[in-house]
Amino acid sequence: MAEGxxxxxxxxxxxxxxxxxxxxxxxxxxxxESTALYSLSSRLKNEGAIKVGNKSTGIYGEYRLDTPxxxxxxNPSPTPNxxxxxxxxxxSITLTNSESSAIYVKNLKNVDNKGSITATAGKTKNxxxxxxxxxxxxxxxxxxxxxxxxxxxxxxxxxxSSYLL
Length: 165
What we know:
The protein has no helices and 14 strands. The protein is mainly beta. Strands 1-4-7-10-13 form a five-stranded parallel sheet, with no helix packed on it. The chain is elongated and about 55 Å long.
């Protein structure tokens, strides 16, 4: 399920704190080089299960300063977009093959993983959580602090070359 919020002051949305919410199962195990959830300058929450295959990403989140604001047509000082990723304790991301990442973020301020991240035994070169700040989409100084919280379980059994960065 995805909900686009045009105006947070308007009621009617069930999950007003997030633009993207997964409550089901996304199985991309047989889809190489795929992304299960993609979030650009928006708030994403995963409550479900994600499975990805070879050279794939479970959740990709990116913040870009040039993303249009929901109220920029009517407001001379538009409301900034918020960008974050949260996974709940009941959620899971499974890397079923090699060279994949569970969560990959670029220029985000908040990542909160409470769910499980697992790589299938014997698969290699997998990443749990990868975060990069290239300094192009942030405030005027180019600095960005990432608030990364992990209270979930990251389990890579017999996965030679698997990383949590």
